[in-house]
Amino acid sequence: MAELKGWKELPLGAVVLEPGSSAEYITGTWRSRRPVRDEEKCTHCMICWVYCPDSAVIVKDGKVQGFDYDHCKGCGICAHECPVKVEAHAVTGKPGKVIQMVEEV
Amino acid sequence: MAKQIVKALDGAKAVAEAMRQIEPDVVAAYPITPQTEIVQTFSQFVADGLVNTEFIPVESEHAAMSACIGASAAGARVMTATAANGLALMWETLYIAASLRLPIVMSVVNRALSAPLNIHCDHSDSMGARDAGWIQIFAENPQEAYDNTIQAIRIAEHPDILLPVMSMQDGFITGHGVERVEVLEDKAVKEFVGEYKALYSLLDIDQPKTFGAWAFYDYYFEFKRQQTEALSKVPQVVREIGKEYGELSGRYYDLFSAYELDDAEVAIVVLASTAGTARVVVRKLRQEGIKVGLLKPRLYRPFPGKELVEALKHVKVIGVMDRSIAFGSIEGCGPLFLDLCASFYTYGNGKGPQIVDYIFGLGGRDILPEQIEGMVKELLRIAETGKVPYRVGYLGLRE
Ligand code: SF4
Ligand code: SF4
């Protein structure tokens, strides 16, 4: 994280002067569980991307690339909404969905 | 000195008249007794095309202050008015207006808070909001209510300040009491308040801003310190603007006004309209040779503690008159007493007069000259004997 500023340096009224600067605010540290995806079995339906409240599903050229763990808060909504089922998840080995939640370590 | 017109106005109409002359960009307000007359009169000005103000009729006071905040963040000059339970309903948004550093000016026509339901004057409404980060100024009469409204714009918008101002007058006593008011010409008021250019504006689409984002334990504290810093500069600015306004109108304003205080042995400290009654008592007692003086604070938040200690430190006994109770504070005292005691402890070098508090006038209970006279006699007895019979007393209360 950037160097914290003193009270004399800050804009009045906590007004944020730089658009889009929330990307610099790392909120991924709040996470206690993290989503993991079975890349092979993902159909790129984009449901997880639509539902993620933190824009933490990374998409490039119409394909899901993975998660932005600097901002993913581990809410589990993507794992809940993912419509594609697997018998054995590539990461967890467990039956369930393409996205599954694992303990943060 | 600018030309002035003498009008017969009550305090509410005097404020509406000032608002017409200031012609803010936006007024968002909800009517509540005894403030209704301000909003009603002003909305008539809007309907008659006398002002070019966007008037937003809202569904509650919470909505009123919220709309004011949005408009002020957009860069508009914004005014509103309220009283009592309406002010209480604004609670959350009062803090937001101050914290976002939005120079909104709000007229408060002081009225008792429920329960029991009461529409008459006391100061429990604005006193409850004294820690919200607003500047608070009390007026004694319709003339001061008019003058303070105009000065409040300049105080709020001063680049060193940028904080909202609450401009008070006593409900009914001042708000509905018609008096002689000297009114400046429209042009003079417009020139005095000038044009408002917001430091940051939500409508500045070339440089987008975010208002009301969060700050956690990493930054919140620093923003609170900034607010305290801005408030610490208020007394100086209030003085400067009070002087400039004096040069314009012939009516000079300071942080407080003193009457017969220089050689006083005992002093009365009281806010707003009651200072008028107390002045009559002081004048009468002075003719009898009694050394009593009066101090009427004008600026209440930030509390000008240092200046009040300087003005009062020579007296033997101070009788503070509080028109509200700071419930649960020492001995059930009022807020003015608390602030004055704290000021003497902080700035008085360990010395100071005896200070006794008198709660009076709750829910609009009349305060009579004889009662104030009785209080002064009691202060004189304390000065003579050194014995304080009680720390908090009541004037005009039935046992
Ligand atoms: S919801 Fe599931 S299947 Fe659809 S794109 Fe996301 S991970 Fe892939
Ligand atoms: S766990 Fe929540 S925040 Fe993280 S990627 Fe999934 S939906 Fe987004």
Descriptive account of the structure:
The complex is a heterodimer of chains A (105) and B (399). With 105 residues, chain A is mainly β. Chain A contains 2 helices and 6 strands. Chain A has helices at residues 47-51, 77-81; strands at 33-37, 57-60, 63-67, 85-86, 96-97, 99-103. The longest helix of chain A is centred in the middle third of the chain and has 5 residues, at 47-51. Chain A starts with 32 loop residues before the first strand and ends with a strand. In chain A, 19% of the residues are buried. The model of chain A has no long low-confidence stretch (mean pLDDT 95). Chain B has 2 domains: 4-193 and 213-249, Thiamin diphosphate (ThDP)-binding fold, Pyr/PP domains (Rossmann fold), CATH 3.40.50; 256-395, 3-Layer(aba) Sandwich (Rossmann fold). Chain B has 14 helices and 15 strands. In chain B, the strands form 3 sheets. A 7-stranded mixed β-sheet of chain B has the order 3-2-4-5-7-6-12, with helices on both faces. Chain B has a 6-stranded mixed β-sheet with strand order 9-11-10-13-14-15, with helices on both faces. In chain B, strands 1-8 form a two-stranded antiparallel ribbon. Chain B is globular. The interface between A and B is medium-sized, with 14 and 24 residues. The structure holds iron/sulfur cluster (SF4) (2 copies). The site of one iron/sulfur cluster has 13 residues of chain A, from helix 2.
Describe the SSE topology.
The complex is a heterodimer of chains A (105) and B (399).
Chain A: E1 33-37, H1 47-51, E2 57-60, E3 63-67, H2 77-81, E4 85-86, E5 96-97, E6 99-103
Antiparallel strand pairs in A: 1-6, 2-3, 4-5
Chain B: E1 4-9, H1 11-22, E2 26-29, H2 36-47, E3 54-57, H3 61-73, E4 78-82, H4 84-89, H5 91-99, E5 105-110, H6 124-128, E6 135-138, H7 142-157, E7 165-170, E8 179-184, H8 186-193, H9 220-232, H10 234-249, E9 256-259, E10 266-270, H11 274-287, E11 292-297, E12 299-301, H12 305-312, E13 317-322, H13 335-347, E14 354-360, H14 369-385, E15 392-395
Parallel strand pairs in B: 2-3, 2-4, 4-5, 5-7, 6-7, 10-11, 10-13, 13-14, 14-15
Antiparallel strand pairs in B: 1-8, 6-12, 9-11
Helix pairs in contact in B: 1-2, 1-7, 1-8, 3-5, 7-10, 11-14, 12-13
The structure holds iron/sulfur cluster (2 copies).
